[in-house]
Structure formats: C-alpha cells, structure tokens
Design brief:
By secondary structure, the chain is mostly helical. The protein has helices at about 5-20, 35-50, 60-75, 80-90, 100-110, 110-125, 145-150, 155-165, 165-180, 185-200, 205-210, 210-225, 235-250, 255-275. It contains 14 helices and no strands.
C-alpha cells in the first residue's frame, strides 16, 4: 500500500472510534478523564504521517508519532494506539497477506526499536505504569522490542499483541466487526469495543485500580454485550451504553486498552480490505 493510503486509513480508524459511544472512553457523545474528542483528533492528525512514512523502522515510527502527538496536545492521548498501529502500518507496506506480513515485522524488531519505543513510553508517561525492575522502560533498553513486550505480556494486553501476532485483534475484534457488516458504522465500532471489554479485564484499568476492579468491569461489560442489539438504531442501543458510560466515568474507570484495541481493529480491517480492492 502507498503511504498516503496507510495514513488515511489510520486517520479514518481514529475518527471512527471517536464517533462511536465507547463506554468509559472519550467519544463524540461525552468527554471524560480530562480529555475531549478534539485532543484525540489533533493527536491522530499529528501521528499519522510518522506512522506511515515508508521504510522507517517500527520503533522510530512509534517515537516520532508519540512525540508529535504530545507536542500538539500536551497529553498522552494515543500511546497505546501508536504502539499497536505502527507494526500494522509497516506490514501494510509489504506485498502479501497482512497477517503474515505483521508476524514477520514483529519477528524483525530489534534493540533499536526497543530503545525508541521505551523513549516514547517514558515521554508519554501512561498512568499506573509503575516500575518493574530489570528492563524497565524508564531505563535504556538492552533487549529487542518483542522480547521486552514478552516480559510485559502477562500484565499488559497491548504488549501481548506483540508476542501473539495480534491474536486478540484477529480472534476477537475483526470477527466481531465482520459479524456486523450490515450494521451502522458506529455500531460496529461500539460492538468491537464492548467485545474487547467483555472478553478480558482491561489492562489500563487493572494497572491503575487492580485486577479485581478490572474483572468487575469485564463482567458488567459482558452482561451489557448480551443485551444490546447492535443492528438496532442508535436511539435503541445508546441508552444502555450511555448509562454504563456514565457509571464508568463516575467511578473514574477508563478502559483505555479496549479503546486502543478498537482503533487497531478498525485500522487492520481497512488495511486488509484495501489489499483486495481493485
């Protein structure tokens, strides 16, 4: 794929995610956690060119995209999104199936990628990151990026994608997205987000509030996912989503990992579809 197409697909995925009523996160129906839609829109526009620059290593894409986002917003709006989308953007440049290319990109990650990604993570300073002894991101990396992600995979769902070839995207997100091919675009994004939140404890919530709290939210999301008809119009599906959205925000709970995985799913779906477009 051409760089301009990859860049456009990334921006479109970010905007589609913001247009959906993603419970507990920032979206066009409700701000939250000290952030508004405009912050994320500006961050997406700033990050997109750096994610899509041809031939640039994954780590450099991450570092430059995060730096551009921080410069324009002054907030950590999209670290997780960039970490997930940089390998996808790199894979999309290559000929062949997206998932096979992605696996190859992840296997090729090296020490330079880790050092750049560590600098980006430290600059963004995500909430609840804490310190983790050897190979902490606050110190210079001494191992390859995929190896570093493997060490964090047990506690961080974004890191887990690096060592499973994005198993959650391909086993949870994309199948749910495909199931709703005839639904409204924002309903598809809402359903994908809720599918992630219901499938496993959100690691952003777990990092800040503990695994027990994250599991409570997961169970609540699973109950809601079973009750919402995403083929229904917004007037029918949004009251229940809005109520849960308000409840999460009142408790200060931000399922940020589920939102990041949603953007990555929308981005991957667009990239995969583009490869088969005449």
């Amino acid at each position: 794929m051409r760089a301009d197409a990859i860049e456009a697909a990334f921006r479109a995925a970010c905007h589609a995610e913001l247009a959906a009523l993603k419970v507990g996160n920032v979206h066009r129906y409700s701000a939250g956690h000290g952030m508004e839609v405009a912050h994320f829109e500006r961050a997406a526009a700033a990050a997109a060119p750096f994610l899509a620059t041809p031939g640039v290593p994954v780590g450099a894409r991450i570092e430059e995209a995060v730096a551009a986002s921080l410069k324009i917003t002054g907030l950590n709006t999209n670290l997780g999104i960039v970490l997930l989308c940089a390998p996808l953007a790199t894979a999309a440049e290559r000929n062949g199936p997206l998932r096979e290319n992605l696996a190859a990109v992840l296997d090729e990650l090296d020490l330079d990628d880790a050092q750049a990604a560590f600098r980006a993570i430290t600059a963004a300073n995500p909430g609840g990151l804490g310190r983790h002894g050897k190979h902490d991101v606050a110190a210079p990396a001494t191992i390859a990026l995929k190896t570093a992600m493997a060490l964090a995979a047990e506690r961080d769902r974004i890191a887990r994608q690096y060592v499973t070839d994005y198993a959650d995207i391909f086993a949870v997100g994309l199948p749910r997205y495909a199931e709703l091919v005839d639904a409204e675009p924002e309903a598809r994004a809402e359903a994908v987000h809720l599918a992630f939140l219901a499938a496993f404890p959100d690691s952003h919530i777990a990092r800040k509030f503990g695994l027990e709290t994250a599991e409570v939210v997961r169970a609540e999301a699973a109950d809601l996912a079973a009750r919402v008809d995403f083929h229904a119009p917004a007037t029918m599906r949004h009251p229940a989503l809005a109520a849960f959205d308000a409840s999460l925000k009142e408790r200060g709970l931000n399922p940020g990992t589920s939102a990041d995985l949603t953007v990555a799913t929308l981005f991957a779906a667009s990239l995969a579809a583009s490869r088969f477009t005449p």
